[in-house]
Amino acid sequence: MANPYAVDSALAALVLFAASLQWIFPDEGGERLTPVGWFLGAATAVPLVWRRRAPFATAVAVSAATTAQGIHHAPPPDVMYGGLVVLHATAALSGPAQRRLMLLGWLIGVSVTIDHKEGADPYKYAFQLLGVVCAYALGVLARVQRAYATELEDRARRLERERAADTERARAQERSRIARDMHDILAHAVSLMVVQAEAGPVVVRSDPARAEAAFDAIATTGRDAMTQLRRILGVLKEEEGGASAGRLPQPRVSALADLVRQVAASTGLRIGLRASGEPRPLPPDAEVAAYRVVQEALTNTVKHAYASSAVVELDWTREALTVTVTDDGRGPVPGADGGHGLVGIRERAAACGGTAEAGRGPDGGFRVVVRLPAAVDRQAALG
């Protein structure tokens, strides 16, 4: 962005040059520029260097110099260049009282100056007064435009802060839901470890093989629990209200067929369920995440996509399960941030070591793709 002082200095030089032309190149029989006249012309231009730092003081100085210039010269300047500039600056930058005072002063001053000129005609009045009014009006428009731009910037910043706060609240709520789900998973793991640990000493002498299997089970369960604990340390939140009763069994991938049927029956949406590859064991948190991801994606389809059909695809590989939900709706809305649903899907996937992507499908509509690591991939990482 250009330096405002450099711009104002260049403007002052341009006004001085324009104000000098009438006397440097006078009409036939016109009066040439005198040293005093040039000094007064310079006095209408030089103060413009400070027009942004002190708009009203600059306007007063230029107004006084313009009045003196009009009295000194016969005739006065054809165009009051410096005056038009300061009127614009005053209207754009000064307070209401200063703006009105300056406009009134210039209207009176121009009228009186032209009235004292011999042979003044209505066209001269109209030209000079119209110039004053136009300069002032352009300054008002500049002030309104600047205020509007500032308001838009402030509104954009407020919206950005609100969007960030909404996203953070959505993340916090999803993390709280993840913590509640993981509570059951970890409670199950710890319960198994306790049962096996209590049984091991009892059979260690009578049935060493059984005791060894019990201790192996403890080790396996403990490693899996530790993996899950490390992953969710950053997202566990204190359970709201401390309620822990009435918990239902955690949903699994095998329950997706029932979910699809339920959504299709209740909404009339045509939903297909396809699977490829050989199903493999998933960690408990990934089982829950796969179910919740499909549930949330179908919910978004019903609520926002205006779709008539959707497809849920499960692609099993040795390392991971890839869940893809595609609909034939309107697709992503330009400028939208995806809402809380997609935030929750990403948090779900990240909490169990997976990834999530969302956007326009290859044939239009909306597509969600989530990759969740299989148990064998996690065992390899532990080994």
Short description:
The protein is an alpha+beta fold. The protein has eleven helices and five strands, in the order H-H-H-H-H-H-H-H-E-H-E-E-H-E-E-H.
Can you give the helix content as a percent range? Answer: 55-70%
Measured between the Cα atoms of the first and last residue, the distance is: 58 Å
* Continuous helix count: 11
Calculate Rg over CA atoms: 39 Å
Quaternary state, please?
Answer: single chain
Structural class: alpha+beta
Shape: elongated
pLDDT averaged residue by residue = 76
* Number of strand segments: 5
Order of helix and strand elements from N to C terminus: HHHHHHHHEHEEHEEH
Question: Any low-confidence stretches, pLDDT <50, length ≥5?
Answer: 237-248, 377-383
> Biggest sheet: strands, sense, closure?
5 strands, mixed
Query: Hey, roughly how much beta strand do the residues contain?
Result: 5-15%
Strand order of the largest sheet: 1-2-3-5-4
How does this model look, in words?
This protein is α+β, with helices and mostly antiparallel strands. It has helices spanning 4-24, 35-45, 55-72, 81-93, 96-115, 122-203, 208-232, 256-267, 284-305, 339-351, 375-382; strands at residues 270-276, 309-316, 320-327, 355-360, 366-373. Strands 1-2-3-5-4 form a five-stranded mixed β-sheet. A hairpin with a 5-residue loop joins strand 4 (355-360) and strand 5 (366-373). It starts with a helix and ends with a helix.
